[in-house]
Amino acid sequence: MARKIAGNQMNLILKHHAKVQDVLELGPGRGPFAEQCQQRKFTYTCADISARLLNDLNYLPRRVQALVPPLPFASDQFDVSFAANFLEHMLDFRNAYDLVDEMKRVVRPDGLVCHCVPNVMEWGLHFWNGDYTHSFPTTPRRAAQLYLDLGLRDIAIYPLSGPWMGQLAHFGNLIGKMIPVWFTGYGAMPTSKFTKALYSAKTTFLASFMIVGRK
Asked: Per residue in 158-182, is it b (16+ CB within 10 Å) or e — as a string?
């Protein structure tokens, strides 16, 4: 499923920028988006705080260990700066502002800044319960306000749910809401494989969205 999700993300990026060559990703995870970039022979760079995670991605030549923001890259260096499930981990709106501002700085004129994040309007309390490091509530309206305040233009927002996007994402969100987790204490024991898998399934399908803005 991760590959399908990354493929959807890449398709939306290419919808807005047909001449992508240099891509920066923050928080690459296990590398599904990196794989999409490699398949298209893009020059791919990633940054993450975790040395262990970056070591697991040692097949990627451009990996930088860093706590961001700020970003340890020159201005106007990339065509796209991208982050999935990253913005919501910023401590507050100031950190979120600084992050997006830095992602804007490192892309070239007409380059893209892109985030994929949970939609708190649909997640409700699961946004905080699902991950204790979720600190900056992300909604389409809040994300658009942030992008606009930073002078990003041609802003577009796309609903996502697991492997689906667009109208199908609304259907996927209903599936996520119907997955019962109350009997597990709402995922209270993350050390249980069953509890972890069930709660992960729920949050995978609860609505998220991708926002794209142009420098």
From this structure: bbbbbbbbeeebeebbebbbeeebe
Task: Note the pLDDT tens digit of each residue in 61-114.
Answer: 999 999 999 999 999 999 999 999 999 999 999 999 999 999 999 999 999 999
**Cα–Cα distance for residue pair 62/141, rounded to 1 Å:** 34
Q: Are strands 208-214 and 107-118 parallel, antiparallel or unpaired?
A: antiparallel
Written in H, E and C, the secondary structure of the chain is CHHHHHHHHHHHHHHHCCCCCEEEEECCCCCHHHHHHHHCCCEEEEEECCHHHHHHCCCCCCEEECCCCCCCCCCCCEEEEEEECCHHHCCCHHHHHHHHHHHHHCEEEEEEEEEEEECHHHHCCHHHHHCCCCCCCCCHHHHHHHHHHCCCEEEEEEEEECCEECHHHHHHHHHHHHCCCHHHCCCCCCCCHHHHHHHHHHHHHCCEEEEEEEC
Q: Which amino acid is at 79?
A: D
Q: Which of 34, 43, 30 is nearest to 10 (CA)?
A: 34
Domains, the chain, in order of start with CATH, read: 2-161+207-214 (3.40.50.150)
Q: Report the C-alpha gap between 73 and 64 in whole angstroms.
A: 10
Give every strand in the sheet of 153-161, ordered side by side.
Answer: 63-65, 43-48, 22-26, 78-84, 107-118, 208-214, 153-161, 164-165
pTM beyond 0.85, yes or no: yes
